[in-house]
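--- STAGE predict ---
source: upstream dedup step, 1 unique chain passed
mode: sequence only
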Amino acid sequence: MAGALHAAHRWLLLTPRQHRRIPSTRDPASPLRPKLNHRGERCTFEAILEDYELGEPALQRLGLIVRAADVEGQEHVAAEGPGLRALAEGFAAMELPDEDRLVHQFPVYDALYEYARRHGR
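--- STAGE serialize ---
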């Protein structure tokens, strides 16, 4: 499963949104780059939310969905997680170049964000 949810992190860092105040992370030497790793039971997506103090409820909810998809044993935190895992694994199985995979997956995260925004916690 390693890397299958890579698009979630890229979506969070690269997709412009009014609610996000994320400085550029493209420079690998930048002190603004988050530490991209799991933290205990929490996934990398949640670590990015924490590093950039992104407390918007929809992003927090999306973080739980990504954790349920990404972290073994955390499926219980969001019922949508196994479905997201299946989508991520399916995209990975298509063996598309990274750029093409992101183009196809970003709308999935846009839709999940809207879902999370409308359904709250």
